[in-house]
């Protein structure tokens, strides 16, 4: 670099630059500039403030609790169970009532099972055999009911048979009934009580009408005219998903009940209302699919007079209900505190900390005593104790 270049560089380091504004007396450019300003202002007022309500603080950390109860009785008369009255203790699993529960609507019953040896079901591919060597003793039957004993049992002169197993015998062999056992469960009712709370704003509410009338919950049913009656008819819930109750009761299914609390807390608490939606969650469109429906097995055990243990095996088909709650609460808070009330300057001073920098680049004595990194501390949460630095710092 030459001598002239070095001299020019040293002089430019000491230059001071400032902005220069040129006012163009052009109506088209001026109109375009004002239109741009109006567009931005309209966007802020209409979209950000009125539509999206950007002036509000929101709380999405919804706290929720669900209590469920099912009521209803029905009568059946079958060869396996005889005459039987079914109440809530028989057909609701689990009985304590949570946000997920199951209502039995159909059954395959295998009574009087006892642990002993018997032939495995012919519907189990891994149990088919032609000779005893096909049934190695002690090995379980894949997707079967027990462990092999080493014998291949054949009926008459048939060449193919099934392995003998040690299991709860006789094994389940019956197919699903063509009509749901508890078809009248359509008229059962579900009680869904939901407590919600937005902790940020200390706001709580429930989906049950605040009344002293003890007969209210015994006579009301949920509907457009009774949004605060949490009593739902099973058949109605299923129909709201677009399904037929008798069809879903036959092979089972999964129903989702969604409760949405989207509350504008600037309004009266009575304006914060739950919104319900109902949907079918299992594979309802493929009735012949192996993945359609919902079922599981359970057993009831007992002993006879001689102390021998027996059980009744039940393959239960039914409706699983999943109750899901979400929501958000919005409140007109910081903007009011900082700008619109009498003592707004007090709250503004608490939210924003001013830092004065001396000529030598160090903070003054009062701010230095507050400790290093004052202007870099993040904004504290609401109600975050007595610290002074509870907002973003502003340097002047």
UniProtKB/TrEMBL annotation:
Region (Disordered) location: 358-396
Topology in the lipid bilayer: Multi-pass membrane protein
GO MF annotation terms: ATP binding; extracellularly ATP-gated monoatomic cation channel activity; purinergic nucleotide receptor activity
One GO term of the biological process aspect: calcium ion transmembrane transport
Cellular component terms (Gene Ontology): plasma membrane; postsynapse
Domain of life of the source: Eukaryota
Keyword Kinase: no
Residue intervals passing through the bilayer: 31-50
Keywords from the UniProt entry: ATP-binding, Cell membrane, Disulfide bond, Glycoprotein, Ion channel, Ion transport, Ligand-gated ion channel, Membrane, Nucleotide-binding, Receptor, Transmembrane, Transmembrane helix, Transport
InterPro entries (UniProt xref): P2X5_purnocptor, P2X_extracellular_dom_sf, P2X_purnocptor, P2X_receptor, P2X_RECEPTOR_CS
Catalytic activity: Ca(2+)(in) = Ca(2+)(out)
Positions of disulphide bridges: 118-169, 129-152, 135-163, 220-229, 263-272
Pfam families in the record: P2X_receptor
Residue ranges with Low complexity bias: 368-380
Protein localization: Cell membrane; Membrane
Primary subcellular site in the record, as a coarse category: membrane
Residues given in the record as ATP binding sites: 69-71, 189, 295-297, 315
Complex formation: Functional P2XRs are organized as homomeric and heteromeric trimers. Homotrimer. Forms heterotrimer with P2RX1.
General function of this protein: Receptor for ATP that acts as a ligand-gated ion channel.
Family to which this protein belongs: Belongs to the P2X receptor family.
Protein name (Swiss-Prot/TrEMBL): P2X purinoceptor
Gene: P2RX5
